[in-house]
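Progress against Task 2.4 (sequence-to-structure conversion) is shown through the following example record, which the project officer requested during the mid-term review.
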Amino acid sequence: MTSPAAGSLAVHERRALADLLAELGPDAPTCCEGWTTAHLAAHLVVRDRRPDAMPGYALEMVPRLARLGGWAHRVEDAARTRRSYADLVEQVRSGAPRWSPLAWPGLEQLNVPEFAIHHEDVRRAQPGWAPRELPATVQDRLWVPATLYARRGAGRRGVVLRRSDRPGVEARIGAGARTVEGEPLELLLWAAGRRDVARVSVG
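Structure tokens generated for the chain above:
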């Protein structure tokens, strides 16, 4: 993988994901339980273009409020059934329109972990996948998102994230009862719940 400029990592991951979605077609599996590539493409299009669905994604992370996240998934289902897969993939590729909050300076940085994670959701669900060798500059960009995702899911036990590619670099979250070691992309995937495919060591 070539090293994208700092501001273009999200665009790089987005386009690589769109290429892979186009190559695999609408029925390929992903690491998102119950989702095919068509489901994932619809999710990304709705995220980019339907601000009314965004609160649902946040609410579904709170167990007591998860049912309120149903609107977002109904919007996704409508997008998936009413548009062609090719159209969805092209909208994934073109990105959020200028009026979308996810295109605004600052908020667009939320796209870096989103597209890195979902790119791997598709890659790692296919037979014969192997981890990508990412430049150090890209791994550095993924380190902070990995720590932020870990804060959300560390629980009472806490966790220590430790970079395997940069000795001595770690982040302690809470009590830090567990240590999870790996490259930042792998730590990000682990923290985002992709524990079956994240190449990390847990101690």
